[in-house]
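Re: that chain you flagged

S.,

Sorry for the slow reply, it's been a week of failed gels. I finally had a moment to sit down with the sequence you sent. For the record, here it is as I used it:
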Amino acid sequence: MGNLDTSLKRYYRSIRKDLPCSYKMKKTIMQQIQESVGLFLEQNPNADFDEVKLHFGEPQTIALSYIEDQDAPELLRKMRIKRKVIVIVVGTMALIVAIWLTVAVWGIIDANQTTDGHINDTIIVVK
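Prediction finished late last night. Pasting the structure tokens below so you have them in one place:
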């Protein structure tokens, strides 16, 4: 049973990954799928993972069937929001890296100008 549980966890994770919807909706859909699989396993106690997969289909197929049930304009709106969030996060990270590089280069230039390109060490001999 342990191998079946591990395979089912991977199966569920793959389905969840392919669902382009909110966390709340994914949670609801995944609960429905897990209940359906649980019912199938109760009715077929000797079933293995291959039989589950054969009965329910590939993760992408399952995700696609839920996508088809959604309202197209609503799905497109969610995808645009997701794209905007990704652009904002990437832009913010790029800005942070640019600021960090500017500060680092400025520090190097300032250190170089302060020492005239030479490093002066003072050696103190203690007897």
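What I noticed first: The chain has a mean pLDDT of 85.

Talk soon,
D.
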